[in-house]
Amino acid sequence: MADKVLVKGNEALGEAAIAAGCRFFFGYPITPQTELSEYMAKRMPKIGGTFLQAESEIAAINMVLGASSAGARAMTSSSSPGISLKGEGISYIAGSDLPAVIVNIQRGGPGLGGIQPSQSDYFQATKGGGHGDYHLIVLAPNSVQEIVSLTFDAFDLADLYRMPVMILGDGMLGQMMEPVVFPEHSERVLPEKTWATDTTKGLRKKNIINSLYIKPDVLEKINFERYARYAEVEAKEARYEGYLLEDAELVITAYGATSRISRNAVNALRAKGIKAGLLRPITLWPFPKDAYKSAAKTAKAFLTVEMSMGQMIEDVRLAIDCLRPVHFCGRTGGMIPTPGEIEAKAEEIARDF
Predict the structure, then answer these.
(1) Cα–Cα dist 185/153, whole Å
(2) pTM higher than 0.85, yes or no?
């Protein structure tokens, strides 16, 4: 087994991307993800890859589109305002049915906001973020080790389903250091990229990558075909982690770094005799609806914990068909909820059981 190394989240993500076969990185500096760009600037030339600091976020995402269209594994990263600027390009990538990996290490907003950790880009990530009918696969790690494993998965899923994948972290995960094992990357069996605009070698007709369809019936047909693929993603790729759910009367649900704080709260609540459990979505899209439906059979209430104004609440309510009340405990603007705050809210809810 490989040795553990102490590494920062942003840098672990970069090394995992390289191990996964990423050879093109296009970015633009913005706190709190700049270390990822810096890491790729140092590492890419040493492995024969390409690092380019673009003149803007808009340029960077369109460079990803170009590299991906040629069949390469390409990635970009940014933080909240920068992802907003990339929104049009992300829609173009989705509309061209191209694989790509986009990293968002979130900061407080809206607007320029602040540089502290946040989870207030949930709507942007899970509901599209750009124009048109499309989805991203959204992966939400909660540790530096999981950043590594989900980065491997991100590139494979992007290629498998020919769609963009977002790794949605936050400033806390990007900046924290933890011991990590970098395992050998074992790819899934993936389809050949027969669609790529690489050389034809005179063996086939040239490929054209395009997202413009003037005839509405043609565009509708393509959207229907794309959504059939999305349905396959929903059926096969939804992921979650459950903790002490078997007899949980109060299900606390949180993702990313906030789920670690919530787990501590669950343990403290159990010590006080309150039957709490944790349900952590790992894929924010596709949302693990079946896990929530199952938890709702025995739970009396849900408590959503976020570093936002409660953006995940809607998906929790939809997943459980509003069969149980869904409460909220969170902080915003770069503030982080404490285990004590979560415990106090949980105790308030449990008094009504």
Answers:
(1) 9
(2) yes
